[in-house]
Amino acid sequence: MTRLSVNINKVATLRNARGGDVPNVVKVALDCENFGADGITVHPRPDERHIRKRDVFDLRPLLRTEFNIEGYPAPEFIDLVLKVKPHQVTLVPDSPTQLTSNSGWDTKTNLEFLTEVLEAFNTAGIRTSVFVSTDAEMIEYAAKAGADRVELYTEPYATAFPKGKEAAVAPFVEAAKIARSLGLGLNAGHDLSLENLNYFYKNIPWLDEVSIGHALISDALYLGLERTIQEYKNCLR
Ligand SMILES: CC(=O)[C@@H](O)[C@H](O)COP(=O)(O)O
Ligand SMILES: NCC(=O)COP(=O)(O)O
């Protein structure tokens, strides 16, 4: 089974636009769970432009599904994750001011750093995932660093999909096979949508998890949150 983790960053973006508590991020997360989501993902960025540290603490005791925290492992992020102890932490190589994630790790250059950080999370009993491109060497070095899983950065797939889906998915199938041969679990995310998700899943049915935010929350404006989550779940069958 491939699990759907709903990324609720955009709900916090909307909340922050007025400075109050509408929409309530915790309520939306719990509703996502009630509507069938298998997990909740947040990406607390240093400027707290969407998810705030406070949200992460508020969510932890109330969620009943898998909690996944993504981010760059700066000291403040590491401290937050170790305090909150989510089910999974996903390491992303973002600079503090970046608009959104736009690449996977260079796991070879950062081997020593990643090994140290992953060790701290593994020791705390938190499953680890490392955000990577489809480059075989990057996946091999993620395994060497001690990751439990890799998350494939799917923006290149989403961009290429309308021009030719077979060519778009091919490097991801190869990368997924390499991850499997190394004993790594497999996640995927970034710009996955109702348009491109089912084809990705059909080609890589052993995927453990997808995390989806931007397109899913946008679809919910038209379809409503409950129906949207059901439609994304249907793409994973
Ligand atoms: C790692 C990843 O692809 C997503 O977490 C993405 O970075 C979403 O973050 P934003 O919602 O800040 O764009
Ligand atoms: N890890 C990817 C994620 O959480 C959501 O990315 P997106 O769907 O907002 O592009």
TrEMBL record:
It catalyses: 3-amino-2-oxopropyl phosphate + 1-deoxy-D-xylulose 5-phosphate = pyridoxine 5'-phosphate + phosphate + 2 H2O + H(+). SUPFAM superfamilies: Pyridoxine 5'-phosphate synthase. GO terms for molecular function: pyridoxine 5'-phosphate synthase activity. Its EC number is 2.6.99.2. The record marks E151 as: Transition state stabilizer. Keywords: Cytoplasm, Pyridoxine biosynthesis, Transferase. The active site is at H43 (proton acceptor), E70 (proton acceptor), H190 (proton donor). The keyword Chaperone does not apply. 3-amino-2-oxopropyl phosphate binds at N7, R18, D191, G213, H214. It is an enzyme of class 2 (transferase). It is found in: Cytoplasm. Pathway: Cofactor biosynthesis; pyridoxine 5'-phosphate biosynthesis; pyridoxine 5'-phosphate from D-erythrose 4-phosphate: step 5/5. One of its GO terms (biological process) is pyridoxine biosynthetic process. Its main location: cytoplasm. It holds the Pfam family PdxJ. Homooctamer; tetramer of dimers. Belongs to the PNP synthase family. NCBIfam families: pdxJ (TIGR00559), PRK05265.1-3 (NF003625), PRK05265.1-4 (NF003626). Catalyzes the complicated ring closure reaction between the two acyclic compounds 1-deoxy-D-xylulose-5-phosphate (DXP) and 3-amino-2-oxopropyl phosphate (1-amino-acetone-3-phosphate or AAP) to form pyridoxine 5'-phosphate (PNP) and inorganic phosphate. This is Pyridoxine 5'-phosphate synthase.
